[in-house]
Design goal:
With 429 residues, the protein is of the alpha+beta class. It has 13 helices and 22 strands. The radius of gyration is 21 Å and the shape is globular. It starts with a strand and ends with a helix. Bound molecules: shikimate-3-phosphate.
Length: 429
């Protein structure tokens, strides 16, 4: 599907973004393993989290949806999953396949997990190798590096893992395996990634502690079910933060956004570039900090040092940072972001390629990008490359560029933000 976007005279109003995708996956998966039932509210409506629910149903977990956005999960207990009658399909979702594999590695049955073309090209050796050190039996394509994965569950032993990359998916996979293992499992990251797994598992009674960038989990006898209200997804809100900061006539409020400090790199980066973003109504929702975010038209400056610990805190928002940098005065440099190349697409390559079509001056680097600003963007044809975040990036770019932008693959937004185009229309005045 194609969408045609041009810059509105102003961007004004309030939006509520979908429930956080990372938290939604975890809320349904962990509650599936609990002893009893739990309600999840504001569950992410996108296809990715639907894939997690579908896999769990195939593993014998009853998940009801009495109203849109509300799930009732009937946990089967830690030893309660059943051998799936068919191949498990994680769709486009890296979080689904990686977290689920950590659990399946310890179940006394055979499962096969696969996904779409994008997921089948993403690195799985990073979970297979450390799970094998714990005793797991896993087979995979491409010299044991690519899905489909065939997993024959076995008793696991706790191991100390030093991860070569900061990755919440990898960390969570190993912590979940550790719940079923004997002894302690320690997962140490080079820099901290999002900590939703740690927060939720602890709230459900798991014996889990963190010290610096190392997390230790001990085997669990049971998990308590936990009712959760999922905060709004800051990765979806990021589209409006960038659109609002760059558009010359903008004031946008995004209600109820999760502002866990492991996720707020986008706010820090945009503020350091001069964006006027305010937080109000700070509160706690589902064990996570939440706030309403207001952004207003701002004069942006380039940012020379987006690197290091900032990167995992803004990993999914970096393409939008590159877009903002096109409108900032001076040079912006993004480094240490090689992980961006192994997302739903190679987001370094496709961000540079697609924004260049609109006139951006972007240089690709092995581990990031260098953007020269200010460069006025002109509407052009842009391609999503099957990547939801690219489709949204081009939608926002179209709302900021002169002329008309045609976004091909516009319906890819359904993976994380099905209402994206409607929300863009409602903010455009
Ligand atoms: C996610 C972690 C990140 C992120 C992805 C969701 C998660 O991936 O890019 O969209 O839910 O744990 P990595 O942990 O592999 O960097």
């Amino acid at each position: 599907m194609e969408r045609r976007v041009s810059s509105p005279r102003s961007l004004q109003g309030e939006v509520t973004v979908p429930g956080d995708k990372s938290i939604s996956h975890r809320a349904v998966l962990f509650n599936a393993l609990a002893d009893g039932s739990a309600h999840i509210r504001n569950f992410a409506p996108g296809q990715d989290c639907r894939s997690t629910v579908a896999c769990l149903r195939n593993l014998g977990v009853a998940v009801e949806e009495p109203r849109p956005g509300v799930l009732v999960v009937h946990g089967v207990g830690l030893p309660g999953l059943a051998e799936p009658p068919d191949v498990l399909d994680a769709g486009n979702s890296g979080t689904t396949i990686r977290l689920l594999t950590g659990v399946l590695a310890a179940q006394p049955f055979l499962s096969v997990v696969t996904g779409d073309g994008s997921l089948r090209s993403r690195p799985m050796g990073r979970i297979i190798q450390p799970l094998r050190l714990m005793g797991a039996q896993i087979w995979a394509r491409g010299g044991d590096s690519l899905a489909p994965l065939a997993i024959h569950g076995r008793p696991l032993q706790g191991v100390r893992h030093r991860l070569p990359v900061a990755s919440a998916q990898l960390k969570s996979c190993l912590l979940l395996a550790g719940l079923f293992a004997t002894g302690e499992t320690v997962v140490e990251e080079p820099v901290a990634s999002r900590d939703h797994t740690e927060r939720l598992l602890r709230a459900m009674g798991a014996d889990l502690s963190s010290q610096g960038n190392a997390v230790t989990v001990r085997p669990a006898k049971a998990l308590r079910p936990l009712d959760i209200e999922v905060p709004g997804d800051i990765s979806s809100a990021a589209a409006w933060l960038v659109a609002g900061a760059v558009h010359p006539h903008a004031r946008v409020t995004i209600k109820g956004v999760g502002v866990n400090s492991t996720r707020t790199g986008i706010i820090d980066i945009l503020r350091e570039m001069g964006a006027r973003i305010t937080l109000s109504g700070q509160r706690d929702v589902g064990g996570e900090p939440v706030a309403d975010l207001t952004v207003e038209s701002s004069a942006l400056r380039g940012h020379e040092e987006i690197a290091g610990a900032l990167i995992p805190r803004a990993i999914d928002e970096l393409p939008l940072v590159a877009l903002a940098a096109c409108f900032a005065t001076g040079k912006t440099t993004i480094r240490d972001a090689q992980e961006l190349r192994v997302k739903e697409s190679d987001r370094v390559a496709v961000t540079a390629q697609e924004l260049r079509r609109l006139g951006a001056r972007i240089e690709e680097r092995p581990d990031g990008m260098v953007v020269q600003g200010p460069t006025p963007l002109r509407g052009a044809l842009g391609e999503s490359h099957g990547d939801h975040r690219l489709a949204m990036l081009l939608g926002v770019a179209g709302a900021l560029a002169s002329g008309e932008t045609v976004v091909s693959g516009a319906d890819d937004v359904a993976v994380s933000y099905p209402g994206f185009w409607d929300d863009l229309a409602s903010l455009s005045r």
